[in-house]
Amino acid sequence: MIRPKEPKETLRFSGIAASRGIAIGPAYRYFRALLYAEDHELALSDVGHEIEQFDSAVRKARQEIEKVRRVAEQKVGTPASSIFEAQMMMVSDEFILSTIRQRIKQERKPAAFAVDTEFSAHKKMLEASESPVMRERADDVEDIKQRLLRYLLDRQKWLSKLEVPSILVAESLTPADAILFTQSSMLGFAIDGGGLTSHVAILARSLGIPALVALHSAAEHIETGDTLILDGERGELIVCPDPETQRGYEQEQSFVLGSGVEALGLIVEPGEPLARTADAREVKLLMNLEFGSEVAVLEAERLSEATATADGKKRLGLGLVRTEHFLLLHDDFPTEDEQNELYLNLAERFYPAWVTLRTFDVGGDKVLSGTYREDNPFLGWRGLRISLDEPDLFLGQLRAILRASARGNVKLMFPMVTTADELERALAFLQEARNMLHATGDAYDEHMPVGIMVEVPSAAIMADSFIPMVDYVSIGSNDLTQYTLAVDRGNDLIAPLYQELHPAVLKLIRGTVEASKRGGKPISICGELGSYPLATPLLVGFGIDEISVSPTAVRSLAARLRLLNYTECKELTDRLLAECVSPEEVKRQILQFLSERHLIDVFSETTLRSGFGARLIKK
Ligand code: PEP
Ligand code: MG
User: Dihedral sign, CA of 306, 308, 314, 319?
Assistant: First the structure.
């Protein structure tokens, strides 16, 4: 007799609500799996193309390995970089390569399958060796195999396998994976790692998908198909809920869906600025765009259209375009023309509003798979540092951006600037890119504004020396917080220590704003602090000119700004920075300020921010 499956016991996990909303549905348990290839017989007419694909994958692999080897040699010296030399030898081993070509040709095997089986056989042979050195080489063979498979298999197809709308559960998730999964039917995601400002969390907010991070060890208790309730309002994940709990959540879900930011109504009257305080001080609003996701672009575009002037002129532009998402999605560097097409498309869609293109900020938690691994990636080879070390890549991107600037609504921004020397070198590259375009007769905006992100404490402290070299400054509070407090923004174990309202962070922000004012340059903020309701009075009080937030946060920010008075906010910030020594005191003073003005309810999105100590609560 077949017994019905035992109902599983209900489990509750508490984490950090990274993106609001409630999702109910089956779990899809995602493992960042190694790639494998399937076998099938190629049509005779496909053989030539398959060999070309294989040769191109080998060429790409060699280029990438050489790039990584050069960097490794520069950073860690020859002994460590010899790993990559060994990898290079393997990917150039004519015996293996010609065996693979033969198998494609004679056995009509797909290139990926031939690569998989040949390199796996080679790996097995090394693993069986008596010599420990040879055994270690087995990992390198796996690395090369994975690299080639990545080039040969269509990653998008490989990842988009959510057959039914599901809640994704994983130990960790890269921003690129998250974008790909949203292209199939992901209802939300819940991950063990991450923090409120880890990139995957920012992405979820930007795409409006409910998400939980910092669940520590929830994933191992969940199987594909388990019913889940993802509570992005309270930071809870309920596994196999009882029917009564589920009904309650279904009711709440329909309420939450029906009372989104849309309920705040349109934010502008024709002829009025997008946002200003009660005492008529204008604060410009902009949006952060998660590049690479058409859903995100459409949402931003829709908002920009909804807030256009009566004669259809768009005013709501983009204050931060994270161009590196393109790289992460494709696991490869796009060509100058490919980039130009994408940048131009944005410049046209938002014209005449500004589009701020930030040069690639790879590194930290935004890593290309298979690149050189670092012990301390956030303090490592990241952002502008990579661009300066890779002139061809950097010049290609600068030319692509400059060409897109021809219509006059593009701004350029450099991330992770740490020293004045770096900025000088970046500007010299920019000049070189201009000269190249001049020589080829390509059009570009000679007055394209160039700015930097202030997101490293050294840049905030030395802001006076950077400001004369740029046209504007944008504060990256996400990184500024992690570097000031020495708290990794994506590490779930220390998530409660990540305090954007710490007076040390606020003093650096205020110092940067003051330096910008002294230098007569506009100052904006594009970190997540911009959408943190409790921070709004402080940003107003500091006198920040522009705030750039994800499209989902624009309306509520505009509504909050309308309720504040600049003079009062300034008094608050002055007092607070003179008196407070802890983030708790800062919060207390802000709450008191809001409560005296009966504004607590409007600023109550703060529930999103409470850092729950993640723990397993068994019923
Ligand atoms: C920041 O650091 O605040 C920022 C906006 O950049 P990112 O989140 O992409 O590091
Ligand atoms: Mg940053």
Answer: negative
**Nearest alpha carbon to residue 550 among 184, 187, 265, 204:** 204
What is the residue with the minimal CA distance to atom 1 of ligand 1? 476
CA angle 324, 325, 329 (to 5 degrees): 125
Reference 372, options 65, 57, 58; nearest CA is 65
Report the run of H or E that residue 23 belongs to, with start and end.
Answer: strand 22-29
**Total-model pTM:** 0.77
Q: Evaluate: CB of 322 within 6 angstroms of ligand 1.
A: yes
Instruction: Out of 199, 216, 325, 502, pick the active-site residue.
Output: 199
By most ligand atoms within 8 Å of CB, the mutation choice from 197, 484, 489 for ligand 1 is 197
CA angle, corner 536, sides to 532 and 539, nearest 5? 115
DSSP state of 414: E
418 falls in which pLDDT band (50, 70, 90)?
very high
Task: Give the pLDDT confidence score for residue 202 in this predicted structure.
Answer: 86
49 catalytic? Reply is no
Q: Is 476 in the pocket of ligand 1 (CB under 6 A)?
A: yes
**Closest ligand relative to 199 C-alpha:** 1
What's the mean pLDDT when you consider all of the chain? 87
CA-nearest of 295, 509, 326 to 400 is: 326
Q: Which residues surround ligand 2, an ion (CB under 5 A)?
A: 455, 476, 479
Ordered domains of the chain (ranges, CATH)? 11-32+158-241 (3.50.30.10), 44-152 (1.10.274.10), 274-583 (3.20.20.60)
β-strands 355-358, 317-322: how paired? parallel
Q: Say whether the peptide bond before residue 457 is cis (omega within 30 degrees of 0).
A: no
Identified catalytic residue from 122, 216, 325, 526? 526
Ligand 1 mutation pick, 198, 477, 478, max ligand atoms within 8 A of CB: 478
Residue bearing the CA closest to ligand 1, atom 4: 476
Check pocket membership of 208 for ligand 1, CB cut-off 6 A.
no
pLDDT for position 431: 98
- Secondary-structure percent of the chain, ordered helix, strand, coil, rounded to 5: 55, 15, 35
Which residue lies with its CA nearest to atom 8 of ligand 1? 478
32 vs 35: CA distance, rounded Å: 9
CA-nearest of 140, 6, 147 to 64 is: 147
